[in-house]
Amino acid sequence: MNPDILDGFAQASMMSSLIATGIGSLLGLVVGMIPGMTISTGIIIVLPLTFVLEPTISIALLLGLYVSGMTGGSFSAILLNIPGTPSASATGLDGHPLAQRGEAGRALGLAITASFIGGMFSFAGLFLIAPLLAEIALRFQSPDLFSLVFFGLTIICSFAAKSVIKGLLSAVIGLMIVTIGQDPMMGSQRFTFGQVNLIAGIHFLTALIGLFAIPQLVDNFVELIGDKETRHKATRIERVLPRWADLKRIRLPVCIGAPVGAFLGILPGAGGPIAAFISYDYTKRVSKNRDEFGKGAPEGIAAPESANNAVTGGALVPMMTLGIPGDPVTAILIGALLIHGLAPGPLLFVENGGFAFGVIFSFMYANFFNIVIGFLGLRLLVKVLATPNALLMPTIALLCVIGSYALRNNFFDVYVMFGFGLLGLAMRWLDMPVVPLLLALVLGRPLEEHLRVSLASSQGDPTIFFTSPFSVVFLGMAALSIFWSFYAEHRSRRESNGATRQ
Q1: Rounded to two decimals, what is the model's pTM?
Q2: Are 254 and 309 in contact (CB under 8 A)?
């Protein structure tokens, strides 16, 4: 057996790593179930606390939060019909009607069980696929890596926006921000305008806190001003463990949702919501009880829940092997790895094989903690739904300020964080997606480095990007992605205009 596998299992099985995974899972369930909070926001708030921890422990904590956050989103969707995460929207279609019939415990138990099965399925795929894909990626040269990063950026921007133009514009803004600081090749200053604090560039985490947390705080503050906030009453929870008859009913939905979620998770930009609704729709088509869907069908809970948790493992595959984030959360995880001096990509399995497999096994433990904490602490966890925003939001705001300052012990980063908060608000009011900007911040630096190294080696000849089959394939896929996005948007507008005329 590969010694790196044994080393990774030992690292993930250390008591400190297990405790971190358990704490992360508990936090993830809480963050996921609070309406208005997101998994990305939860990880961003926790990330500064991991700077003093070992890399293995830090990633174990974040993976626990990532995995359980997906499951936690279904709690509020089932009990309140308010999805805690976008992926849980499909779960609420049948979960909430089942809760209204007085079977909230049954619905929550099915959601937790399906999430665990989907997560373990994606763990198996991650364990088997990631090392093989990393071996192939080791053959990539600078032109191939540039084309790969460019493809990852274009496909994510295409999926992340209702308007392709706005999505690409958001990515361009992110690429412009990346250029602030020192030139990666020459070491000279760029766009610092004489400001010493900008020589090191804009810190990734500072931008994340501003883009995600500040707009959410403003939204909740507006709700408080308008007296729109209500304290939700937690539904009475009866039996939680699924009965054997329910387990038999969800066999087919889980067998549909888990592979669909794992496959779409590997594709950058597809994400949990798409996987959840595709699984829900296909399960409904093949089910013998299709008339029950929308009225409290157990299959309608199991399919999307197994899919959105299978997405988590799938999204880790391109993140670990290619350095391409599969979704916004894995983009933040890449930032966490870079902060600890570990660059995700094919060399991760060569230079830090034990750590790479440690991440994979920590993901496995995160799924185990998810189901254990979910079942044992469910009755206590749902009481979090009654927490008023007037108490929750000031605490989050304080953590944002502390986290921004603690990055470099520089109050300038706090100003930058608020600046990005204003940018996030402006983009929200203009209906511009934030995700492409986020991913541009992650991918911008390697995109520039591989572009300039390739052009330097070819003495400025751009045809170098068409000399390698890998590069040609990635550039072709990028062109297809952009073309298809424009075509899909045009077709959608044409159909909506036709419906309006009728």
Answers
A1: 0.71
A2: no
